[in-house]
Amino acid sequence: MSIINSSSSGLTFINDNSANLSIQTGGTLALTFPTSGSIAIGPTQNFGIAGQPFITNGPSSPPSWGSPPGYSLGKAIALDLVFGWYR
Length: 87
Known about the structure:
There is one protein chain. The protein is 13% helix and 33% strand. It is mainly beta.
């Protein structure tokens, strides 16, 4: 895994000869990009599940996988029928 670490002393690049790329802040894992093309967030390597969007939680909280507020399959179908979206 190649690691880019950001700290108060600047950026550190670590290469351990694997194909994955990870980004750390202050030594804590923030994002991982494996060779599969997926994205993991946080130190627990949360990949989410298929169809979940990446959601920002404001400037003081880490992002997460989840459903945006007010989203439903019914609304998506209605928007598609009325406006031709999601095609």
